[in-house]
Amino acid sequence: MHIDLNSDLGESFGAWSMGNDAAMLDIVSSANVACGFHAGDPAGILQTLKAAAERGVAVGAHVSYPDLQGFGRRNMDLASADLVADVIYQVSALSGMAATVGTTVRYVKPHGALYNTIASDERQARDVIAAIRAVNPELALVALAGSPLVGWARGAGLRVIAEAFADRAYTAQGTLVSRREKGAVLHDAADVAQRMLRLVREGTVLAIDGSVARVEAQSICVHGDSDGALEMARAVRAALERDGIAIRTFAA
């Protein structure tokens, strides 16, 4: 058995530092690299791309709404022409930078509010799908496991990678518990590691109400910007590998 571990990287901006990309790149198999719309400056993005290339970590474009001030977490009702162009711009820019350090962009993972919106908003979802296909229809799309987006993207001919989140609680329906609710974000590294082991082995997680929810995923996101993020990521990887589960990018 095998699973992909991914993390959101390249998000530092000027004197403002976000996470520890170098350390996280020693743990994950895929790196979602910011494209400058929600975070990341050119020098930092290039440094992260180079570090990923040196470690053989697959690179994906972490595209966002144009929202530096809000870190891409504010909902935006962009016109289709603007959203398509924004995504094309971001993927193309990151692809050009990646080429200079000997790597390539192999997939797209939307960030923050854009990720959550297109999980169920068909109009914006199809805009993002159209943009990806315009740049390179061979690019994979990382999408929230169990969301309508998975079907829309596959129906449009894209390869879709369903994603689960290591540090997030799930509802009985297999959806993420809103960050506004108590217990939505998990902090116990050992508990999170065992949850992810169960997810890979059985395709289920223990929901916030104590029931068992089905979540089938080919990639697990380990966030790099929260307290104890590295400890949690290391614990997840160690638990999986102890159980004979290989950590391998889906983009190989």
From TrEMBL:
GO terms for biological process: carbohydrate metabolic process. CDD domains: LamB_YcsF_like (cd10787). Its EC number is 3.5.2.9. Keywords: ATP-binding, Hydrolase, Nucleotide-binding. GO terms for molecular function: 5-oxoprolinase (ATP-hydrolyzing) activity; ATP binding. It catalyses: 5-oxo-L-proline + ATP + 2 H2O = L-glutamate + ADP + phosphate + H(+). The keyword Ribosomal protein does not apply. Forms a complex composed of PxpA, PxpB and PxpC. Catalyzes the cleavage of 5-oxoproline to form L-glutamate coupled to the hydrolysis of ATP to ADP and inorganic phosphate. PANTHER family: 5-OXOPROLINASE SUBUNIT A, UNCHARACTERIZED PROTEIN YBGL-RELATED. Belongs to the LamB/PxpA family. This is 5-oxoprolinase subunit A. It comes from Cupriavidus oxalaticus. The lineage of its organism: Bacteria, Pseudomonadati, Pseudomonadota, Betaproteobacteria, Burkholderiales.
